[in-house]
Amino acid sequence: MHSPHVRSIYSTAMAKSSLHEVINKHRSSILEDWIKEQSAAVTMRADLIKPEELRRQSSEFLDRFQTAAQSGEYDDIRKPVWAPVTELLGDLSRTRGRLGFSPSETAVFIFSLKSPLLIRLREELGSDASRLFSEVASMTEILDKLGLYTTEVYQQSREDVVLRQQAEMLELSTPVVKLWEGILALPLIGTLDSARTNVVMESLLQHIVQTGSEIAIIDITGVPMVDTLVAQHLLKTVAAARLMGADCIISGIRPQIAQTMVHLGVDLSAVATKATMADALREALRRSGFRFSRESAPKS
Amino acid sequence: MQEKIPILQIDDLLLVSIQVDMHDQLALQLQDDLTEKITATSARGVLIDISSLEIVDSFIGRIIGNISAMARILDAKTVVVGMQPAVAITLVELGLTLGGVHTALNVSRGMELLRRGSSDS
């Protein structure tokens, strides 16, 4: 006669073992069914993934899933025992995201495992309704969680791409050019907002330190619109450069912009301004003590 | 409170190099010492090298402005040299553009500026 205590341990042990034992026992047939299921699904992207690759991924996932399922801890996939599984899934979602799979095409990898597992569980435990129910419940629970996890990682990897591209765009749009010994140019292109101004300011100041330049020309030919805020950002940059011991010349002020600035009451009297980059360069060279003369007049 | 920022004399110029983190007491001490020293040596120029200064607050920013204004009253020209980009950005964000202060990229440019200034007058 078993005592109730011994019995409860016995049943827990049984409950723990079932899913992974079923996988272990029918590993190859589950794998075949699963791959068939995935290949038959409407979301299958045969154009993006090779059958061998799919088989390799499925087989490795099944192994890791079976190992993790031995623990019987189906409540939380963040537990260390699930780490190998989530790691594999994370890699898989990221790769599929890059290849051009949609989130549901990615998640179907997990969800299509349900039906092969269900079939085997029913075969094994069909006689014991309550056992079957609890196994199916825990199996569904963990697979749902893993499926959601793939979507999450997919989303995250897409967001990372967007963020990286944004940062790259910021960097790309603010090159600092060395025009002459001691003269830097910063051709600004596109609308200036606070975030961009900070990037511009930092990279300009950094270059001033690196090259030891005393004059920086900020060219705003490519800035479509200058309002009070943009002007304030420009003045800040000029002030910061001055604090470090470099002078700024603002060039590329188009006639309309000159008019707007005066109408807005923006005071640029503290800053040297030139209409074109050429004028600014001439001024900068003059300040650095260079003198130019033409050897002969150009042939007309 | 033995900590002090040294003030070096080169001919008629004074050179101050701030190599430590400035705290308020140290900044006030420097202000006292420097005004004393300018009077004692009748220096014509003061060069403050802050290239090692990485953190600045509104108080230190104001002190730098004050020192320069005080030096000007004592007929010495002040040049602040070697300000780090981060410090410059912080000061601008704080609204301290140090209007009357001369600036230069490094010590040698600063010296040049001071010598040129004193030979003009």
Observed structural traits:
heterodimer, A: 300 residues, alpha/beta, Transcription Regulator spoIIAA, rod-shaped, B: 121 residues, 4 helices, 5 strands
Short description:
The complex is a heterodimer of chains A (300) and B (121). With 300 residues, chain A is α/β, with parallel strands linked by helices.
Secondary structure: number of strands of chain A: 5
Biggest pleated-sheet summary of chain B: 5 strands, mixed
For the largest beta sheet of chain A, what order do the strands appear in spatially? 1-2-3-4-5
Percent in helix of chain A: 55-70%
CATH class of the largest domain in chain A, named: Mainly Alpha
SSE string of chain B: EEHEHEHEH
Structural class of chain B: alpha/beta
Give average pLDDT of chain B, whole number. 88
For the CA atoms, what is the radius of gyration of chain A? Answer: 33 Å
The pair of chains with the biggest contact is:
A-B, 19 and 20 residues
Account of the protein in words:
The complex is a heterodimer of chains A (300) and B (121). Chain A is rod-shaped and about 100 Å long. Chain A has 2 domains: 4-168, Globin-like (Orthogonal Bundle), CATH 1.10.490; 177-287, STAS domain (Transcription Regulator spoIIAA, 2-Layer Sandwich). Chain A has 11 helices and 5 strands, in the order H-H-H-H-H-H-H-E-E-H-E-H-E-H-E-H. In chain A, strand 2 (183-189), helix 8 and strand 3 (215-222) form a beta-alpha-beta unit. In chain A, strands 1-2-3-4-5 form a 5-stranded mixed beta sheet, with helices on both faces. Chain A has 300 residues and is α/β, with parallel strands linked by helices. Mean pLDDT of chain A is 84; it is low at 1-17. Chain A has helices at 4-25, 27-40, 51-69, 83-99, 103-111, 114-125, 129-172, 194-211, 228-244, 255-264, 277-287, and strands spanning 177-180, 183-189, 215-222, 247-251, 272-273. A 5-stranded mixed beta sheet of chain B has the order 1-2-3-4-5, with helices on both faces. In chain B, strand 1 and strand 2 (13-17) form a beta hairpin. Chain B is built from 4 helices and 5 strands; from the N terminus they run ββαβαβαβα. The mean pLDDT of chain B is 88. Chain B is globular and about 35 Å long. Chain B has one domain (7-120): STAS domain (Transcription Regulator spoIIAA), CATH 3.30.750. Chain B is an alpha/beta fold. In chain B, 47% of the residues lie in helices and 18% in strands. The chains are: A alpha/beta (300), B alpha/beta (121). The interface between A and B is medium-sized, with 19 and 20 residues.
